[in-house]
Design brief:
Blueprint (H helix, E strand, L loop, with lengths): L2 E9 L6 E6 L17 E10 L11 E10 L3 H8 L2 E9 L5 H11 L8 E5 L5 H13 L4 E3 L6 H14 L5 E3 L7 H11 L6 E3 L6 H11 L8 E3 L7 H12 L6 E3 L10 H17 L9 E3 L2
Parallel strand pairs: 1-3, 1-4, 4-5, 5-6, 6-7, 7-8, 8-9, 9-10, 10-11, 11-12
Antiparallel strand pairs: 2-3
Length: 299
């Protein structure tokens, strides 16, 4: 099925104009990796707001499958502009919001979009206080994907998200890579895993350490939903890797675990290696016709 996309580009240069264009050709932007594949896009709306221009009154209400907004400044214009839109998938990249502005965006704008299922805030410098506004969307909507890559959520933000995970019946994918998450954040998420229905959890490029890895490992034997866990580049050493390797062997549903790099040089290295081989053999026997390539990487 062909998909419509809306692209909003707020540049840094100050020009007193608002340009809106609509076309059906494929959209190509080498700097944006979040757009759907060109073959999946039927109709593209492009909105360019440059500088501090706020003349958006002429923009008509429109629905699209995917809305992509990217700007460094001008977040007030973004709220004004997409307030007239409706989308199923929203990607907001490289924006900087005030707390009041973010509150308006999430509660008054996105909160009114009944078809919203996927929400991506990427490199938007979101703070824990902002995450609180997102929790209402997670709990009150049918959100299936929440991607907060490369923000400043920290442990406090993770604790807020964890409570929302436990209350959500629809969230399947959570991405928190590059969010300064430590042991406390990982522990909060681990405690929520068995209450929610997450299938993919990405905590890569944080610093949960061995204690965070052990918290997640404790939740895995009892979990029947999680399919993919990514904790790469998290200062996990041999003890954390050991607990993860044991947990994977006791889990019946996990298909992919990424935890490299781990330096296996101590007395646990042989046990970790044995558990990895055992887990890999078990994963290969699991029946999952639609699953991606199996992966277990601890070293």
């Amino acid at each position: 099925m062909m998909e419509a996309a809306l692209h909003i580009d707020m540049g840094l240069h100050k020009h007193d104009r608002l340009s809106v264009s609509r076309r059906s050709s494929a959209f190509h932007d080498d700097g944006d990796t979040y757009l759907p594949a060109a073959d999946d896009i039927q109709e593209i709306f492009e909105i360019s707001l440059q500088g501090n221009d706020s003349h958006t009154s002429g923009l008509e209400t429109s629905h699209c499958n995917t809305l992509v907004a990217s700007c460094m400044h001008g977040s007030n214009d973004l709220v004004t502009c997409i307030g007239k839109m409706d989308a199923e998938r929203v990607i907001i990249d490289h924006c900087e919001f005030s707390e009041a502005n973010f509150s308006e965006l999430t509660t008054k704008v996105l909160g009114g979009w009944d078809d919203l299922t996927c929400l991506h805030f990427i490199h938007d410098r979101l703070q824990p206080s902002s995450v609180g506004y997102l929790s209402a969307l997670v709990c009150g909507h049918h959100l299936e994907t929440l991607d907060l890559s490369d923000n400043d959520c920290g442990d406090q933000g993770c604790m807020i998200i964890a409570a929302a995970i436990a209350a959500s019946t629809s969230l399947r994918t959570l991405c928190l890579q590059k969010n300064d998450v430590g042991f406390a954040g990982a522990a909060a998420l681990a405690a929520a895993l068995n209450s929610g229905r997450l299938e993919t959890l990405d905590l890569s490029h944080n610093h949960i350490g061995d204690l965070g890895a052990r918290s997640l490992a404790t939740a895995l034997p009892h979990n029947t939903c999680l399919r993919t866990l990514d904790v790469r580049d998290n200062d996990i050493a041999e003890h954390g890797a050991y607990h993860l390797s044991v947990a994977v062997c006791e889990n019946d549903t996990l298909l992919s675990l990424e935890a490299a790099p781990v330096a296996l040089t101590g007395h646990l290295s042989e046990m970790v290696s044995d558990n990895v081989r055992r887990a890999e053999a078990m994963i290969e026997k699991k029946e999952e016709p639609l699953a991606p390539a199996h992966a277990l990487a601890l070293a």
